[in-house]
Design brief:
The protein has 1455 residues and is α/β, with parallel strands linked by helices. The chain has 54 helices and 30 strands. It starts with 9 loop residues before the first helix and ends in a 6-residue tail after the last helix.
């Protein structure tokens, strides 16, 4: 802390006690001085000072204003250069200067208080939901009446019970309570986020404005900051904040201050205020992307909310993950902002220190939804002491207050046992009878009168309207105009896309590879009759591929959903602006993409080479691409989840592809589905492409197979006809137009007018529809999590007696901890860790040494970003990136392969398999990690012990769930589960990374007390900890303190009353520590933690030269000299044999699948719809020549189904892999059982899906109904689906990110379809491809098998329109004329009327039976039926082997 700041003289401080000044807004308030420490660490009154002093200071500041404004403009420009000195930043001065400048410029201040009366909030009760399974989901479908609310369970639980209170502008209110008391719910209701609750009764008034009006016109003026940090991981800190500021730049600024100046000024202030200046160019990161540390990310969330400059701010546990010093700095900043700008601040804090508590004006204490105290913060302690409660000397006030709600923790003074309140309702009654309650109600009346007199609401509306930029509706909650929103979003979108280099490279790489391969497959198409169909195929493929590529947009589009919700609440931008920005940035990307594809394909395929046609092709593909992007995103916007969006678009894509008029010509479509053709964007695009290509081209009919009859003696064109449709007898060529008209029913004249316009129209339609959908279809309700229980296991509300019994049990368990004989000593020395960064290496840990002995509880502390988590990761052998050096010994021997199994490591991120219940998860851990010879019953009993100990009885049978999905257990319960998961494994050494962050004081106390018990029983424990209160800190006996740069500042005993440690710092020139200070906060301040840490000396250097460090070094050297570097004992990597692992892992995975109906029922519905759509499109096919072609296409549509399954299998697998890596890192089980289970668990579902698909398609399309054919179709289809799902797994195993997989999918899929021999028969393919690629393609064997199976016994009977007609020469019958032609054994087909003579025409049918068709066209043979099945099976087995190999190779995540 800064020691240079104003030291207030003694008389100033003493006036505080003589007269309690009353501030001008009528509330008694004390404004602390410039919030700097005066060597009074943790002293309660040390920071208080009277108002006059502060007011005088404002005057001096006013005098110095010009100097400050000059400085601030210099700072803003210096921030850009990155050359900022932190020493000359004083937040108070900076803000006061800003405030005065704003008032001088005529900006109106925004003040708004908030009042609530008789507020009652209800939510759904625990038994309203059970865990969904595939059966219960289908059952729910059948009980459709429940969807309309008839007969569904209507139990509700009360969350808040008639609360009344207020928070004036310029005041800070602290809401305290244990988890489940209703603090978060109160903040959400006050922040006007009401979606998650069933009933809200009572009134809430924002300075006289009702919540409904407030939501529609002033939404962003009340902001809520939740516990979770939601940011784009690939943006830098600066980009994140710049974006927020651009959308919140007020219309009325200082004279000649540009928008950029404003953004830089605020950026400079936030960077310094929250200590983010040095991190401005660091990526934000998340669990998978390396970036800011947890504490820094939290500070970024705080900064982002501050950019909204809202009048009422609700902070929900915003200090979670900050160290004590940073937390204090942050609350001080809130205090300053509240005072200067008269904001209304409401916060809930867990584990707040006294220094933090003293900054608040009022306190509201909740328990079980009852208000048990609401009044001035400085009178709370006295009030409860008068009720008969005792506050121990070192206990911080907030801990004392929340502790009152827990009978185990509260202490009653002698003599008050009978009168002191026991349960929440008693507390509320006592409070309602107190004088404080009456005073508060009187103050509230007074405040309401003042509001109506001053008409605060009108002034507020005026100020907000002044904030709006020009061209913005004054009634809208958004400050920036629509254009400015789109501009800011486009810049952000650009950064997001440019950063994602993997996706960029893979996207364009895919296009390049795909373009070249497609073009080479359709290399230089001839302008003959046979070439015409291939041309259609090549163009159809170009359209198809662009549609597939667009489907990968869906993943990226849905990734930013939660962030969009948060920004919508902050009223930063309209969701529609977000979509428009995406479209704007799609344009350059799509142009490059289409150009690349066209350059690859257009010339190599030998398409029509005129400039006009070339550019028409370009513009068309561009619009088709943009339209399809819009199409997929539209469904992304209206679908509730990724799975649903993929399912729906998958089915629709098949419908669109089938009905383009290429696969089935328009004339052959059935009346019940032909309307799809008219509303299909792909139809119009494909039509235009084909007309553009074929119009005015002549296709020659010379050459084998292009005309009938052909061969020697048939040279007169008067007596032969082109086989290509549209031919005219007597002409040796076909005009492109005639082919289009006759065969495809396309009208060439319509190319530009309806067709091209229709494509552009669809693009515009989808753009508007999606923007509209995003604007009005609300996203998630957000809000509290709904718990799902096993049927019949929902906890009942306990009576008071049962509650007391439960508490007694818990106490008993903690007291009866059994000691373990084998103590473990763990030591490390010279540990260095470097990671590669751009342009070199970055050292995160610098020569760290230390030792943990049996019975030691060592605290690992340091500021945010000092490398605490990194050190734990390195010691627990979890790092896979970077270089680790150093000597690490366990019990005096080098680490062996059982190290990960016998150490427990609780990580900061709570990663758990969401499908199982808490008890199932704990048992799973116990079964796999406790030694195999312990009986199952013993393991189960131990699990129950841990559940009681961590107070998890109420959630033991609740599904863990996902925080994002809104179902599951809360963040705080997850933390306890993470700790439980490690404890049930009975590890020999425990690492805990911030076990108390995000917990309330009571849970933290329970956990730390329990860890202490473990240490006393002989377990060595190393534990990082953020904001220990004095009470918690007393439990630790050793300390390892790190400073920035990953260096040691102290390692050794803490000593009784922390004297050993304090003496070390005081004797080396640190400031004195006062007796009632919190030692943990003292040392953090000494070494300069906090946002603007000031240090007098380099404590790491001091440590290196100290005698304590030398003693430690000697001890570690001794360990090293006596250590056994090659231990010979038998070490087991896993506790259980492979078979047991496999049984447990497979059982759990099967359960997870059974409990994810959205995935499995979704896949089923998808498959059924695809089957029925295809079946009814090709309804009861007959046996004419065109039906042959259609049967082939009906079988082709099963390809796309395989594609959908690939896409759907991936996200599921990626999610499962996340849990696998976390459990594999602790050596629960080997990678092998998991990889095998991942495949096995799919098989029962696939057996069922294949049968269902067959029922939907096989008989409706009129396929051959013999037992052998049906059976063969089933097994072959089954094989291909198995193969497709495992291929999906392989792609997902290679690609780490879903976005990456989404780009690889279309490439692989298109190649498989391309070389299957259906689009381009092998005879027409270039030799290069047909010699190997065609034989490598599983789809080739699949389609050959199905075709042969279907057509081998079929006799062809041509219908009239299928006959090719030509006149015989005069005087000859058709039979005589074609005798030579048919004499060759290779000639297929037959004559329909051999006896006809002129003027009648001969009717030639191209094929006489099925085998002729597939042998002459594709060279397939019925003899290969079972060979093909065998090859497909081999492909499947190969996939499984590759997949298992990939799982092994990627078994560790990158960290």
């Amino acid at each position: 802390m800064d020691e240079k700041t104003y030291q207030y003289s003694e008389e100033h401080v003493s006036t505080k006690y003589e007269t309690d000044h009353v501030s001008n807004n009528g509330s008694s308030a004390t404004i602390p001085n410039t919030y700097q420490a005066n060597n009074t660490f943790g002293e309660t009154e040390g920071n208080d000072v009277d108002i006059e002093a502060a007011k005088e200071e404002y005057q001096t500041i006013k005098r110095e204003l010009s100097r400050i404004s000059r400085q601030s403009s210099i700072h803003a420009s210096r921030l850009e250069e990155g050359a900022i000195e932190e020493d000359d930043f004083n937040l108070d001065n900076f803000l006061s200067g800003m405030h005065i400048q704003q008032s001088d410029a005529g900006q109106l201040p925004k003040h708004l208080g908030v009042l609530w009366r008789d507020l009652e909030v209800k939510g759904l009760a625990a038994d309203a939901h059970t865990i969904p399974t595939v059966f219960s989901f289908i059952g729910g479908f059948l009980q459709f009446w429940k969807l309309f609310g008839i007969g569904s369970s209507g139990n509700k639980k009360e969350i808040l019970r008639s609360l009344t209170g207020f928070c004036k502008d310029g005041e800070m209110l602290l809401v305290l309570g244990r988890p489940g008391a209703g603090c978060t719910s109160l903040l959400r209701v006050l922040a006007n986020m009401r979606g998650a609750f069933t009933d809200i009764n009572g009134t809430v008034s924002y300075g006289g404005i009702d919540p409904k009006t407030f939501a529609s016109h002033f939404r962003g003026q009340v902001a809520y900051n939740g516990e979770e940090d939601l940011h784009y991981p690939t943006l830098t800190t600066k980009q994140t904040l710049q974006f927020a500021l651009r959308t919140k730049t007020p219309g009325k600024r200082l004279p000649n201050e540009t928008k950029d100046d404003f953004v830089n000024k605020i950026l400079y202030m936030l960077g310094n205020m929250l200590g983010l200046t040095k991190q401005m160019d660091t990526m934000v990161g998340n669990a998978f992307v390396r970036g800011l540390s947890g504490g820094e990310r939290k500070r970024l969330s705080i900064a982002e909310q501050m950019t909204t400059s809202s009048s009422i701010n609700c902070w929900d546990c915003s200090t979670r993950g900050l160290d004590a010093a940073s937390a204090l700095d942050y609350v001080r900043s809130l205090r300053i902002m509240t005072d200067i700008f008269n904001k209304t601040t409401i916060a809930t804090l867990y584990q707040a220190s006294n220094n933090i508590y003293n900054l608040f004006d009022k306190v509201l204490l909740l328990d079980e939804g009852y208000c048990i105290y609401f009044g001035p913060g400085d009178r709370a302690k006295q009030y409860f002491e008068d009720l008969g409660f005792y506050c121990p000397p070192r206990k911080s006030l907030p801990d004392f207050l929340t502790g009152l709600c827990n009978p185990l923790e509260r202490e009653i003074k002698p003599g008050f046992e009978s009168t002191a309140p026991q349960h929440a309702a008693d507390f509320q009654n006592s409070y309602y009878q107190s004088s404080i309650h009456k005073e508060m109600m009187a103050e509230m009346e007074q405040y309401e009168q003042k509001l109506s007199q001053e008409n605060q609401a009108a002034a507020f509306k005026e100020a907000v309207s002044q904030e709006h930029q020009k061209h913005t509706s004054r009634r809208s909650p958004y400050i920036a105009s629509f254009y400015q929103q789109v501009k800011a979003l486009t810049i952000r979108q650009y950064h997001l896309l440019i950063k994602d280099t993997e996706a960029l490279i893979s996207r364009y790489g895919t296009i390049l590879i795909q373009g070249l391969i497609t073009a080479s497959c359709f290399f230089m198409l001839p302008t003959t009759g046979l070439g015409a169909f291939s041309r259609g195929g090549a163009l159809f493929f170009a359209v198809l591929f662009n549609a597939f590529i667009s489907q990968s947009e869906l993943v990226r589009f849905l990734m930013g959903r939660p962030i969009l919700e948060k920004h919508k609440h902050y009223a930063m931008y309209r969701p529609s602006a977000y979509y428009i920005a995406q479209v704007v940035l799609d344009i350059p990307y799509a142009l490059v993409q289409v150009l690349l594809f066209e350059i690859c394909t257009y010339f190599m395929m030998g398409l029509n080479l005129t400039a006009g046609r070339f550019f028409t092709y370009f513009i068309l593909l561009f619009f088709i691409n943009m339209t399809m992007n819009g199409f997929f995103r539209f469904f992304g916007a209206i679908a509730p989840s990724f799975f649903v969006a993929t399912q729906v678009t998958g089915v629709l894509l098949i419908a669109l592809v089938t009905y383009t008029g290429y696969v089935i010509p328009y004339s052959k479509m059935h009346p019940w589905l032909f309307w799809i053709y008219w509303i299909n964007p792909i139809t119009y695009g494909y039509k235009t492409l084909l007309i553009n290509e074929m119009q005015g081209q002549q296709y020659s009919c010379e050459g084998l197979g292009n005309a009938v009859p052909y061969g020697p003696g048939y040279d007169d064109w008067n007596y032969k006809t082109c086989t290509m449709q549209g031919g005219v007898p007597g002409q040796n060529f076909v005009l492109g137009e005639n082919y289009l008209r006759e065969y495809l029913s396309y009208v060439p004249e319509q190319m530009w007018a309806p067709d091209f316009v229709a494509v552009v129209g669809f693009f515009i339609l989808f753009t508007f529809a999606t923007a509209f959908a995003m604007e009005y279809i609300g996203g998630g309700k957000g809000g509290n999590l709904t718990r799902l229980y096993l049927p019949g296991k929902a906890p009942k509300v306990r009576t008071n007696e049962e509650e007391d019994e439960r508490r007694r049990k818990q106490v008993k368990i903690t007291e009866n901890m059994d000691t373990i004989a084998t103590g473990t000593t763990f030591s490390w020395q010279h540990v260095n860790y470097t990671v590669p960064v751009k342009g070199g290496e970055l050292q995160l840990l610098n020569d760290i040494g230390g030792i943990v002995r049996p019975g030691h509880l060592t605290a690992l502390m340091g500021s945010s970003g000092a490398g605490k988590t990194t050190l734990l990761d390195v010691l627990a052998r979890r790092k896979t990136l970077g270089k680790v050096e150093g000597r690490v010994y366990l019990n005096g021997e080098s680490l062996m392969n059982d190290f990960e199994r016998i150490t427990g490591y609780c990580e900061q991120m709570d990663v758990h398999q969401p499908a199982v219940t808490v008890r199932e998860a704990l048992r799973f851990s116990a079964y796999l990690r406790q030694p195999a010879d312990v009986s199952t019953q013993e393991k189960n009993e131990y699990v129950d012990t841990i559940i009681t100990l961590l107070e998890m009885e109420d959630i033991a049978d609740a599904q863990i769930g996902d925080v994002e999905s809104g179902f599951g257990i809360s963040v705080e319960e997850r933390k306890r589960l993470t700790i439980g998961m490690e404890l049930v494994g009975k590890p020999q050494l425990l690492f805990l990374d911030e076990p108390t962050s995000g917990l309330d004081a009571q849970s933290s106390y329970n956990i730390v007390r329990f860890i202490r018990k473990l240490a006393d029983a002989g377990w060595p424990v190393l534990c990082t900890i953020h904001q220990p209160s004095a009470i918690l800190f007393e439990h630790f006996d050793h300390l390892l303190l790190l400073v920035r740069g990953g260096r040691t500042a102290y390692h050794g005993e803490i000593g009784p009353d922390a004297r050993t440690m304090i003496d070390y710092f005081e004797s080396n020139g640190g400031p004195k520590c006062s007796p009632d200070a919190n030692p943990a906060e003292y040392i953090l301040e000494v070494v300069g933690a906090g946002t603007a840490g000031k240090v007098t000396q380099d404590w790491a250097d001091v440590w290196e030269n100290s005698k304590e460090a030398k003693a430690l070094k000697e001890e570690l050297d001794h360990v090293h000299d006596t250590a056994d570097t090659n231990p010979s004992r038998k070490a087991y990597t896993y506790a259980t044999p492979l078979l047991t692992q496999f049984r447990l892992v497979h059982k759990r995975m099967a359960l997870a699948y059974w409990r994810s109906p959205d995935y499995n029922v979704g896949r089923f519905i998808n498959i059924m719809l695809t089957a029925l759509l295809t079946g009814f499109t090709y309804w009861k096919l007959g046996d004419s020549v065109s039906d042959l072609q259609n049967k082939l296409f009906a079988l082709f549509s099963t390809f796309i189904m395989a594609f959908t399954l690939i896409i759907l299998a991936q996200p599921k697998f990626m999610i499962e892999r996340m849990y696998f890596r976390r459990e594999y890192a602790s050596r629960y089980y080997s990678w092998f059982p998991w990889a095998v289970s991942a495949v096995l668990v799919e098989i029962p579902y696939i057996l069922f899906f294949a049968a269902a698909f067959m029922c939907g398609l096989y008989w409706t399309a009129g396929m051959s109904n013999t037992p052998e054919s049906c059976g063969y179709f089933y097994v072959l289809f089954l094989m291909v689906v198995l193969w497709a799902v495992t291929l999906g797994f392989i792609i997902a195993a290679i690609a780490e990110m879903p976005t990456m997989a989404a780009v690889i999918n279309p490439l692989i899929m298109s190649l498989l379809i391309l070389f299957a021999g259906l689009m381009q028969p092998p005879s027409a393919m270039p030799k290069f491809w047909s010699s190997w690629m065609y034989w490598l393609d599983p789809f080739h064997y699949y389609i050959e098998g199905l075709t042969v199976n279907e057509l081998e016994h079929m006799t062809v009977v041509c219908s009239d329109e299928d006959l090719v007609r030509f006149p015989p020469p005069p005087g000859q019958t058709c039979g005589q004329y074609t005798q030579n032609f048919f004499s060759s054994p290779l000639t297929p087909g037959y004559l329909a009327n051999p006896d006809a003579m002129q003027p009648e025409q001969c009717g030639y049918c191209s094929y006489s039976n099925g085998p002729q068709f597939y042998e002459s066209r594709f060279g397939w043979s019925a003899a290969n039926k079972w060979r093909n099945f065998g090859i497909l099976t081999a492909f499947f087995v190969f996939n499984v082997i590759v997949f298992i190999g990939l799982v092994y190779w990627k078994r560790k995540g990158r960290r």
